[in-house]
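Re: weekly structure request thread

Next one in the queue (419 aa):
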Amino acid sequence: MAMHDRTIVLRSMSGRLFSTITTIVTVAIAVGLMTLILSMRSAVNDAFARGTGNVQMLISHESSPLVSVLSTMFYTESPSTPIMWSEFEELNGRYPFAWTVPTQLGDSYRGLPVVATTQNYFTDFMPVDRTYWALADGRVFEDAFEIVLGAHAAEQTGLGIGDHIHLTHGDGKGSGAHEHEGFDYTIVGILRPTNTAHDRALITDLQSAWIVHAHDRRESVFGHGIETTASDMTDEDMKITGIYASLGSRNAALVQVLSALRRDAGWTVAQPADTVRKLFVIVGNIDQILVAMAAAVLLSSGVSILVALYNSMEQRRRQVAVLRVLGASRLRVMNLVLSESALIGLVGGVLGVVVGIGAGGAIAGVLASRVGVDVRPAMPIDGYLWMILATIGLSMLAGVIPAIVAYRVGVVRALRPMG
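Done, posted below.
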């Protein structure tokens, strides 16, 4: 486009500034929505898949495998049905597990989940497959009432090694929530980030959790002011809510063990990675609907370009006729209209991609703070370029009809005196 033609196009757009800005914003919103959906669709899936780590089986008494995975591994809510310690020991003796990690959820600290478990949580369970836990500071718990902070939990609470805290029964919001005031927990370690939901957790030993809840039980009988130790615990106090399990390299036995466990009506068995995949098959159907909706919005923005340019042509017939008198050919006039539509598409497309990237970052931040899942929305660079080029193409397509109208403007008729 020659310098003179560029000046004509820019003056035409600035002369209809409100209409031009409105059309560009419409295009930007549509492109931003499409960019956001396409960049998030695989990123969320990858983020959730990372959190399942090397757990082959998640065993619980929950109502379904999905509920079990979301509550026990992603801490969406506390599991509702406990497992007695005697059940866990019997299960451990019956099947050829390479390792099992018992976990108990139910307490919290400032809304963050507290995981009560055993020391092999740090040695057998890998939060990300083939990646062991690593300490940023301190050590893992060794004695009762010691606690280790996930990376996000440490950052959010500002706690450090040696600090003392009281845990809260439940999530701190329900009617039964109360602080375990008589029991001080000492921070002894802070974990390095794993970019999974586990970074939100505070991790302590099972016996401490059992003593605390035995104390709650005894207080309801004997009243306040009593002291509770491990000797006061009963079998009823020794509960967990989930079991991470693996057969190690014995994959041939996995199908048999899964089949045997699933035949037992008392157990719910999830394969975490497989459960997450199935979840995203369901979400994928919704995702396709969202992509279709974004495409419809993008097409509607193309229509808005068409309408804006068409309406402007009705007002610019005399301007077009003057250009023709000054020597502009019909094809040049047509090219000016198509250039204007392409420029609207270019500005709207670039702005929309920037908006989509920014919105993805904001959503990722919310997911990281509330769910602890590290989502990294992104597309290849050429994906963003194709998005902009497609927007320019759609805009030029929308400008074809107005360009044809400009092409067909009659000079004599358009310059005839009004009134």
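The radius of gyration is 32 Å. Residues 3-48+278-415 form one domain.
Next request, please.
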